[in-house]
Design brief:
This protein is of the alpha+beta class. It has one domain. Helices cover about 25% and strands about 20% of the residues. It is built from two helices and five strands. Strands 1-2-3-4-5 form a five-stranded mixed β-sheet, covered by helices on one side. Helix 2 links the parallel strand 2 and strand 3. The longest helix is centred in the first third of the chain and has 22 residues. The radius of gyration is 15 Å and the shape is globular.
């Protein structure tokens, strides 16, 4: 592996570690969807993916710290925050999510897919 590629992967790993620490302030991680979130640990140049796996997590204020992390230290990255929660009846949600970039947040969230009590506040800045 060449030095430039190794530096990119090391930088990606630093972002992964920072996101894990940050998101752990708001919930628990579990890669099988049995907690609040999951951070993808497969290298992808210039991006990181966070899956939200509980409705309760959507009511927390993690978006502002994610934006701060990208803006201050990782402006060459974007973070995909994907809602991956089933409805109470077991049907999958198609809520999508948001993309955090240095220039702002692209809101792709379909709030009609969310429980009514969190529609107005979920993933708001």
């Amino acid at each position: 592996m060449e030095a430039n590629e190794r530096r990119k992967q090391e930088r990606w790993q630093r972002l992964y570690d920072r996101l894990l620490l940050l998101m752990s302030n708001f919930g628990r991680e579990d890669s099988y969807g049995r907690a609040d979130f999951f951070i993808v640990d497969d290298y992808s140049e210039g991006q990181q993916k966070v899956y939200i796996t509980s409705w309760a997590m959507l009511g927390t204020a993690f978006l502002a710290p994610l934006m701060k992390t990208v803006n201050e230290d990782f402006s060459d990255f974007e973070i995909y925050v994907q809602v991956d929660v089933d409805h109470p009846d077991g049907t999958p949600s198609n809520a999508r999510g948001v993309i955090v970039r240095p220039c702002g947040v692209e809101d792709c969230l379909d709030r009609s897919e969310l429980p009514e009590h969190i529609r107005a506040t979920a993933l708001r800045q």
